[in-house]
Design brief:
Layout (H helix, E strand, L loop, with lengths): L10 E6 L5 H13 L3 E6 L1 H11 L3 H5 L4 E3 L17 E7 L1 H9 L5 H11 L3 E6 L6 H13 L2 E2 L13 H14 L26
Parallel strand pairs: 1-2, 1-4, 2-3, 4-5, 5-6
Helix pairs in contact: 1-7, 4-5, 4-6
Amino acid sequence: MDSHEAGAPRRIVVGISGASGAAYGVRTLAHLAAIGVETHLVMSRSSHLTIAQELSMQPGDVQKLASVNYRIQDVGAAISSGSFRTLGMIIAPCSVRTMSEIATGVTSSLLTRAADVVLKERRKLVLMVRETPLHLGHLRTMTQLAEMGAIIMPPVPAMYALPKTLEQMVDHTVGRALDLFGLDTGTVTRWQGMGRAADQSVPDE
């Protein structure tokens, strides 16, 4: 953990945009709850449609997984201020529109305002950008965000983990994203070297 985060509450802001991949946000909330991390959730309006389409869930079903929920238009919420201490923020999934707003600093909702706050306070901002293929404008925006301190982490499946289900693929990716905050969900298949089983200890040389 970075020195400026020392003593910060075990609290993370979770954003869910309308990009495809709603399962990443839902599983992020579930895993954080399982390890006792307080979650502050803000969802875009378009995320409601994606959640219904991809997961057959309602927004209320997702909100039940979070410790605290905020309305997307509530720009005066706690997470809109840098004085509200957190370990940072993860947006899973992150749409190109959301990414672009954060990059410009011209934020139009609590989702992007909260992300802007995380950047200005030098906390971790992880963006699970869900778009492909990428044109030059997208790539330049990602470069700009990386230069500002954000971590760009597209949800790329780890085939070396030999997942048997879609849920395992999602959980591994979410676990790797939360690794960036120093949080272990127990869902990551740790690489032990070519030909070794994931749970096999590495013998001393």
